[in-house]
Write a structure and sequence with these properties.
Chain lengths: 476, 476
């Protein structure tokens, strides 16, 4: 199908004005590829609507012109979900200008924001009303609410607050035919028919375009305490988590595991970072407990709980941060991980999950297989242990994998090992990053045929012309 | 369509044995109507399978015979969702014999149970592993997990733990064509494609039959404190909730409002119950805070928080229970509500929700309209204020509404007032009870046409022959 680009641009300009229709290759460049530069598309134009009505009008025009639509937010995804297809006429519909905070309702613990609102701004709006919006991930300063909803984002707060799905009360969505579905309800209980908003959460823009959301707010935290703990094995970490949940309930704000090898790499490449404790154990957990009640002595409670855990042989050693600076030094070990690994070699990272109870088995299995099959590979582990979400990181020797092709082949091999092991243990090939363009073939390989067929049934029912982000999640 | 009942029974008996195919009217009686006796159906048979494979085989037989299927659990629903249709051949598929606890995985905080498992048994299984399954409602001793999933049950724990939807990690479902979908994953994070289990949660058996579920467990509670608080108005109750959330975070286990008139009715008909405080305020809140940490002094914290709230003019008076017996006396006021109202007159109860911030307006509006339009009506209020879920209870004078027809007409009038007011304020006509057979016409009246159309699209895509619980949620 051939498309007259100039005609198309004029049609869109009639709706949103020429200045918000980008067609110049240079102006489009940053929108045409993902931020890591792994995927590149060839959209005919980038459209920048600033209202739901404009989105709806643009979608109607695309339906008429049979042009595919790729919704895009902050473009911070890791699986190429916001990149245009190469094989058919498509436009990128960037929602960053739909960025208003429509309402903060502190009494209802809710916040209504548009899709293009940056996560940091949503969090600030909550704080201004003595509330918190607890979703937190690395790209907090640039990722946008619409993308977070569409990928059912995870991050570090899932253990305590759930994924994005659990934080969404209502949605506004422009459907594949251009009609606006107003599901912006702000209710804690609503069983009046099917819960339609669930369709669009985590659908990566393949069933419609999220234009606004009502988000659930939580009480602010007033006290916290951080510790670093040394452990003999992953089983101890799982048991320590369970023990702590029995002692301090849902106050565990973060519970992150790192293998010794991973911490050593961070120290080696981390420009003067130091470990607050000797690295003579194979595993470490970095944890924070936090609470709203300022009457609660978080540091004393953490010390008491860790002492009791030590008496139960659940840990080898522990350091509790006695002030904010010391707590920050502990968390720097975690936050500098990606940067350090980049310097260490060619890094292949994964995002899988298994039931928490299967983590020890999973980690043993992947480590052994990778080390057996890839000469010179160093396997590190870090992740959200409370969510069963471990990032298996293989640092490959540049000596063995010298060319780009060799690196690519090794990465494929590592990914396959990790994905297969997670599925063997009842896990997922994508815990929090989604499928996007990257994992379409992998999903076909590992999902049961019936699951894929049910997904196609949904797609066919809501987007029969396959105009909404085609080729993402499911093959076009 | 005429159906040979005897032939049908033989066909089903071949699959599950004759003793588990009920066709005798007397044996079927308890399954043919809802427990309140408001809805009665005419199923040809009641089938009692005891495994997922048997359910699948029965569904395949029904597809072949073109007989509709009504899934039924503990039959404790309030909207007639488990009653057979009158206008076509149908069978009731009762899941109570599928009642095994398949797995408790304490390290993963998860529990895998079959659909027919009674809620109390699921809770006991969690407790035996030092965990809790927090869903709790009046019918705990007879309602079953499959029904709780299919109606997205609410209850008293929603403020802290969410609805059933938030407590489900995975599902096993027999689809309308008899295939078994194995979605029994036990993961905290899984973004590998559409989250298909969401389709079946709250779908009231219209898209498939839930046969098993993986449930999320929480830490057990070790300390708690209860108080009863007098308030000048509903706005104070909303502000008190917010204040308490700021002080004690997510430790609020229950926060229930009752109007003075409602408490007076309970005392009048409650066989010797007494109020622990003078009833000189128009509104009362019964609350419990609870925590896993036995180091936390719940009673002292509740006293401190309520004193601070008093200083902020958020309450008029408060009584904190100093022991378990006193706490129980406070909660008896709430638990005897339904029983007392039954004695007080002809009672019309509702189950709507609005955003918490709109509760004061909602309560004023419905009270005024009911009292204006129905002579001699007493309006009481009780409910889960933290969820915006207020049960508006109109106690109608038997003098004015003498006949069954007059009562029915008055009930219709009250329901319409309450539903209209909730929708005006952004609320739902069914907060936690679902639609079933009872509210199908009401849903058509109050849901936007686009919502209804999207629901029909889903139903058509997954159950094109309309064999699964036809006439529930959507008109057949």
């Amino acid at each position: 199908m051939s498309v007259d680009g100039a005609l198309l641009a004029r049609r869109f300009a009639d709706i949103i004005g020429g200045s918000r229709v980008l067609t110049d290759p240079e102006a489009m460049a940053a929108f045409q590829q993902d931020w890591r530069g792994r995927y590149r598309g060839s959209a005919l134009a980038v459209l920048m609507p600033s209202s739901t009505q404009e989105v709806a009008a643009l979608v109607k025009a695309c339906v008429e012109l049979q042009v595919a639509i790729v919704p895009q937010g902050g473009n911070t995804g890791l699986t190429g979900g916001a990149v245009a297809p190469d094989d058919r006429p498509a436009v990128i519909l960037n929602l960053s200008r739909l960025n208003r905070i429509r309402e903060v309702d502190a009494r209802n613990n809710s916040l209504t924001v548009e899709a293009g609102c940056i996560l940091a701004h949503a969090r600030e709006a909550a704080e201004a009303s003595q509330r918190q919006f607890p979703l937190l991930l690395g790209s907090v300063g640039s990722c946008e609410i619409g993308g977070l909803v569409s990928t059912n984002a995870g991050g570090t707060g899932v253990l305590r607050y759930g994924n994005m799905r659990e934080l969404v009360l209502g949605l506004e969505v422009v459907l594949p035919d251009g009609r606006v579905w107003d599901g912006l309800r702000a209710l804690r209980k609503d069983n009046a028919g099917y819960d339609l908003k669930q369709l669009f959460i985590g659908a990566e823009g393949t069933l419609g375009i999220v234009t606004a959301a009502v988000l659930k707010l939580h009480p602010q935290l007033n006290v916290s305490a951080t510790a670093m703990v040394a452990l003999a094995g992953v089983r101890q970490a799982v048991d320590l988590l369970r023990f702590m949940q029995e002692q301090v309930g849902n106050r565990i704000e973060a519970f992150e595991i790192m293998s010794r090898r991973q911490i050593e790499l961070v120290l080696q490449h981390g420009h003067g970072l130091q470990s607050p404790m000797a690295l003579d154990s194979p595993w470490y957990v970095l944890m924070e407990i936090a609470d709203s009640s300022s009457q609660w002595d978080a540091v004393a409670e953490l010390e008491r709980t860790l002492e009791a855990a030590f008496d139960h042989d659940l840990l080898s050693d522990a350091v509790v941060a006695t002030d904010v600076a010391k707590a920050r030094r502990i968390w720097e070990l975690r936050h500098n991980l990606s940067e350090a690994n980049r310097h260490a070699g060619f890094t292949v990272s994964n995002d899988t999950s298994v039931p928490v109870s299967r983590l020890p088995e999973f980690i043993d299995r992947v480590t052994e297989r990778i080390e057996q099959q890839l000469a010179g590979a160093q396997v590190c582990h870090a992740g959200h242990i409370g969510d069963g979400n471990i990032h298996v990181i293989a640092v490959l020797s540049r000596a063995v994998h010298a060319t780009a092709e060799q690196c690519e082949a090794a990465a494929t091999q590592v990914n396959l090992i990790v994905h297969a092991a997670s599925v063997e243990l009842g896990g997922s090939i994508s815990a929090e990053h989604g499928i996007g363009r990257m994992h379409v073939a992998r999903l076909e390989r590992f999902k049961p045929a019936l699951d894929l067929q049910m997904m196609r049934t949904l797609k066919q029912a809501f987007d029969p012309m396959n105009l909404m982000n085609p080729g993402k999640i499911l093959r076009a």
